[in-house]
Amino acid sequence: MARPNKRVGWWLADSADAEIRRRVGALAESHDVVQIAVMPDVHLAPDVVNGVAIATRDAIYPHAVGGDIGCGMAAAALDVRLEQPSVAQAQRLFARLRELVPIHKHGQAVELPEALGGESALSDEGLRRLARREGRVQLGTLGRGNHFLELQRDEADGRLWLCVHSGSRAMGQAIRAHHLRAACETSVLPWLDARDERGQAYLSDQRWAARYASASRQHMLHAAARAVSEVLGGSGLDDDTLLDCNHNHVRSLKLDGETVWIHRKGALDASAGLRGIIPGSMGTCTHHVEGRGSEAALCSSSHGAGRVLSRGAARGSISVQRLRRELGDVLFEPHMARRLVDEAPSVYRDINKVMRAQRKLTSIRRTLLTVLTYKGG
Questions:
Q1: What was the pLDDT predicted at 1?
Q2: Which of 13, 113, 230, 266 is the most exposed place for a label (fewest CB within 10 A)?
Q3: Residue 333 main-chain phi, psi, to 5 deg
Q4: Quick one: angle between helices 197-232 and 87-100, nearest 10?
Q5: What is the CATH number of the domain that holds 278?
Q6: Using one digit for the tens of pLDDT, what is the confidence trace for 236-287?
Q7: Of the candidates 238, 237, 303, 240, which has an alpha carbon nearest to the alpha carbon of residue 276?
Q8: Element containing residue 352 per DSSP (H, E)
Q9: Cβ proximity of 49 and 36 under 8 Å
Q10: Contact predicate 78/161, CB 8 Å
Q11: Looking at the 3D structure of the chain, how many domains does it have?
C-alpha cells in the first residue's frame, strides 16, 4: 500500500482534546494498524473513541467495532404531510409507540427473520441460546441512551418520515465478549487474526449481528408506521424510500490495490454513491447523505453530531427547563424530561458545523426537521 504505515487523518469540526489525541496516537501504534481516519464527531468512549475508522491488514479489533455491533439508522417516508401534530395526537401516538416499539423487551418472543439464517448461523452454542432467548424478545425494541425513534418532516416538500436509531441490543454485546476471550493480548487492544478460524468466527458473528440490527430497525419502522396511521392517517411506509445504514462494523475494502479491514466505530460507510443517514441531536435536524468515497478518510464519515458533554456532566449542568427551551416545538413525553437532560441538543455539536467539516466526505441529499421524538432515556 503506497502510504505510511501509521498515518492518522483528522476531519475535525473543532479541536480534539488531549485525551482523544493520546488515545488515537496509542491506537496508531497498535499491531497491524495501517491508517486511521478521525471523524468530526469524535468523542471519548471506553477502549476506542467513537467517531473513528481504522484500517488493518489482518488483525481484527472487536473493541474498534464496539459492543453495539450494527448500530445504525433506518428511515422511510410516510404518505402524510402535517406541520405539527396536536398535543392530543402526540399523546395517543406516544401511547401506541410504547405498546408497539418497547424500549427493552416484547412481552412475547417474535420470530427471527429468515435473512439471519436462524440462530444456527452463530458460531457458538452459548450465543445461539442467547439468540433464542433474548434475541427473540429484543428484536424490534429501541434500547436506551442515544437511541431514538423520530417523526421528521422533509424541509423541502413537507412530507413526514420515520427515522430510528438502534442496534443489536444484547446480541452484539455478547458476541464481542465471547470473541474477546479468544483474542491475542500482544497489543494496546486485544485482536483476532482474520486468517484463522477464531477471526473468521468473529467476522461471521458480527455480520449476523449487523443483519439482526437492520432487521430490528425495519421492524420498528413498520410498527411505528402502524401507530402513525392509526393516529394521523395515511397508509403506512413508502418502502421504496427505505434507507438503512450502520456505523459499528468491520468490512473489507480495497485501497490502492490492497484489501484491508476497515473497522468503523461511530463512523458511517461513505463509499462513493452509498446513501446514508447522519442525525443531529433531538430537536435539530437529520441529513440524508451520499458518500463521496474519500480514500484518505477510509471511505468514512461521521455518524452524527458527537457529544461534547459526558452524560454525568450533562446531568449536573442541564435543567429540565433548559431542555424544554432547547427542544422548542419538538414534541416529547413530558414525564421523560428529567431522564432526557443528558440528551439535550447542547450536549452535542452543531450538526451543520460537523457537515461543513466533512463536505469532502459526503454530500447532503435531503434535510429533515424533528417533529416528535420517542426515547427511552
A1: 39
A2: 230
A3: -80, 115
A4: 140
A5: 3.90.1860.10
A6: 899 999 999 999 999 999 988 899 999 999 999 999 999 999 999 988 999 9
A7: 303
A8: helix 351-357
A9: no
A10: yes
A11: 1
Instruction: Take residue 120 and report the three cell numbers written for it.
Output: 444456527
Distance between CA atoms of residues 152 and 162, nearest Å: 6
* Assigned domain for 1 exists: no
Rounded distance, CA 239 to CA 235, Å? 11
Predicted TM-score (pTM) above 0.90: yes
pLDDT tens-digit readout, 335-366: 999 999 999 999 999 999 999 999 999 999 99
With respect to residue 157, please indicate whether it lies within any of the assigned structural domains: yes
Using 70 as the pLDDT threshold, list the residues of the chain that sit under it.
1-6
Distance CA 137, CA 131 (A): 9
What grid cell was written down for 144? 436506551
3-state secondary structure of 357: helix
Q: What DSSP string describes 141-191?
A: ---STT-EEEEEEETTT-EEEEEEEE--HHHHHHHHHHHHTT-B-SSSS-B
Distance of CA 256 to the CA centre of its chain: 28
Q: How far is CA 365 from CA 26, 40, 206, 241, 288, in A?
A: 36, 19, 30, 13, 6
Spatial separation of the C-alpha atoms in residues 362 and 241, rounded to whole Å: 19
Closest to 76 in 3D by CA, of 141, 167, 166, 163: 163
DSSP string for 90-115: HHHHHHHHHHHS-SS--SS--PPPGG
Give domain status of residue 69, yes or no.
Answer: yes
**Which amino acid appears at position 208 of this protein?**
W
The amino acid present at 220, given as its one-letter code, is: M
Q: What percent of the chain has pLDDT over 90?
A: 90
Secondary structure of residue 239 in the 3-state scheme:
strand
Domain span including residue 35? 7-375
